[in-house]
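Task card 7
Instruction: Convert sequence to structure tokens.
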Amino acid sequence: PFEWLLRYVLADDAFYYFTIARNAAQGFGLTFDRIAETNGFHPLWLFILLPIQSLMQDKIVAIHAILSLSAIIDTLTIYLLWVLLREQNVRQNIRLVVCSFYAFPTILFSHAGPLSGLETALNLMVISFYLILYFRILKSDLFQLREAMIFGIVSSLLFLARTDNIVLLGATYIHIGVHYRNQSGPSRYLFASGSTALILVVPWLIWSYVNFGSLVQVSGQSVAFVTRANLDAQGWSAMDFLLQTVRNLASIVRFFPFYLDNTSTMSFIPLLIAIALGGFALSTIRLLRSREAKQAVVMSQYYTSLMPLLVVIVAFVAIHTFRGVYLRGWYYTSLLPFLFLLGGVTTELFVTSTQPKHKLALRRISIVALLPALVVYGESMRRVYTKAIGEIDKYQMVLSMNRVLPEKTTVGSWNAGVYGYFFDRGNVVNLDGLVNNVAYDHIKNRSLGDYCRRVGVTHLVDPVGSFRYWQSYWAKEPTDLLRQGDVIYETPRENLDRKVVLLHLHSR
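Output:
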């Protein structure tokens, strides 16, 4: 049911995609508010949504169609993960366990999962397919032009699915180049592959730069700019950012292989997972040095091809930390194919390298290990049965806006996704810059108030906490935004910061 989706699954940012795709399908261009164009989206997912939003007039039915497509895509990812593990010589029972963890994760019931309405499912599928091609190239005796061109096309799709996948592209292309460094033919084909990828993404990059003066989407700049500005004002040093990088790396255990939402009350569980994974890694390192490991199928010449993925994980988290400090849940989801692959191959190595006399003990340990795994899984499932708020307050508010506001009203909001998609009596202008390049410029100049007056914003809607967070960017002088107008509607909420209010700005 749609209300359940709002509470547990749909992210507000997903409604940016839905609205931009709907506006584009109706001939308004790539715009959220029908006022100005934006590049605040990952292009591949948006263009896939265009025919759905074009064919389906009912907005909620369109969302169900989009999530159904996401489910189909994510189911295909399970198969690709199976193929990926099989081609790394991981035995069938281990593949079954790994793919089961992927197929039934509690992250499905969260904003970070592949059913959030964001590009997540598509990104996971493309990453998995890309990794299959990557390992096939490393394993082939001769890197041919045909394989290079296909690899280049998939590389372009990987970049267009999420532009931060450039970290994966850089690491893998460098590794392939080093692998074939003594062969002139494959080196030329690798160049052809990269050139093909570049040719296919250049139109997007040129459009973005010509229209907005940047190759990077505004969605990757605005909130990161504000977060860093606030932390710099608090006196954060390079050491603070380094420590935050470590914290963000440690947070990976929340998503692999389970999704732990409330880690403050269950902090011992991610700690246990981290200890278990660390012990498993140390055991694997010990096995790599043993005589038995040299006889393992997985310890072939291709095992080293997994090392760049470790570099990708660390680099991905570090770059996002220094860019935006706090990683969003769906950023971690991008790492799942690497983590499941590394987990499957490491398990295969561990099992294969165990001496015959230890096989029975290993089987017993595996059975015992399932018990705490089931406990953690049960705990992570608890959020499904706990009534969440999610985006339900915003949806109830926008239904009220459609009743009480006059036609052609222009409303401003910092979290504008749900409002923009369902508001039928005018426009909703995004003010945090995620899908508004002009608003981002005014955020940097601390002149959002001037921008709102220029585009005719007469109302503001958001939780009270957002008004307080963003009011320092309204004008160069300190401004209490809640005193700049009259509250004409609000949602009932005991927590004042989470109460959503509709503010009618004073005309002056």
